[in-house]
Amino acid sequence: MDVKNSTEKQDLPAGCFSSWLRQIRSALIKENGIDVLCGECKACCTSSYFIHIRPEEIQTLKHIPGKLLFAAPGLPKGNVLLGYDKNGHCPMLIEDQCSIYEYRPLTCRNFDCRIFTAAGIAAGGDNKAQINQRAKRWKFTYSTQQDRDQHSAVQAAAKFIQEHAQCFPAGEIPGNPSQLAILAIKVYDVFLEYDDESDKTGHVFPDLKIAKAVMKANEKFETQHVSSPSSPQVK
Ligand code: SF4
Fold it and tell me: Fewer C-beta within 10 Å: the chain N or C terminus?
């Protein structure tokens, strides 16, 4: 399918779910970016996102005027944010093209709006309408029952975390939809396991137990990280 010339209504091929899940989890660990069939879409550059840039992204920082950057709240010194203009557009988007594409921030390289399709959640309100529309158009394929089970588990994870915030310590629950979708992708296997167990035994696990398992799975995922401590890197 030629994504570049696809109409706004046409479904977009998101790929086989289990392969995509492996790719996005690997990209989250290695932070080496992920290939997304964006075509002409610039929704993530025009949707009022603050772009986090780390001190070690020297080439990126060299290509962005300092006056466009400000200190990232709550992160170590040297971490900065690139804001957006009154229309929600990234100031580096010039004539509908990223003017620093070769040096674009890791946050941009790691961003994949299929996370919202995978988690079954919206990217946000009106200022994220383009991303919401794009996320609705992505269609994953399922070559095996495992693909379907994994997708259901990611969605179950997102739903549980959203609906059981009280089961988590303060500050443990992600503050925005991108971070929530990414957490669901990191801990989906907890819900594969519990669903399986419940199906076999009919036992319903207490919410607190599931919440504890979610935090444990997230900690385990984070131990695989290969980059510097000053994450998060999501939009
Ligand atoms: S730096 Fe480039 S890719 Fe990143 S949001 Fe701005 S225009 Fe888009």
Answer: N
